[in-house]
Amino acid sequence: MNSNVEMEHHRGVLIVRLSGELDHHAADYVRMDMDEAIMRGQVEHLVLSLKHLQFMDSSGLGVILGRYKLIRAKGGKMAVCDATAPVQRLLEMSGLFKIMPLYDDESAALSDLEVAL
Fold this sequence. Notes:
InterPro entries: Anti-sigma_ant, Anti-sigma_F_ant, STAS_dom, STAS_dom_sf. The chain is an alpha/beta fold. The chain has helices at residues 27-40, 58-73, 85-94, 106-112; strands spanning 3-10, 13-22, 45-56, 78-81, 102-103. Helix 1 (27-40) packs parallel to helix 2.
């Protein structure tokens, strides 16, 4: 299985929906896609939806942390939402939720970023 990336811009927020697997095979492609979208568009904040992400390894964590640093350097915020149970466990073990929040869905994340749908 491979990874699929769907992106949507909404009022300065880049919503990235990942599905499939985010592992060492897919990490570089996902990283490049996200970086290009962040640099190309008027992106202040990033919402990462993991509703359909079945698997992630340490390479995926690296992708997420790298995008977090990129968004923070631009003065923005990043949020994660809809994480599946196995992915959420990995993110919890990594300590990621100490630096960025987890929301139940995209609407909650956008609401906290003060961007209404």
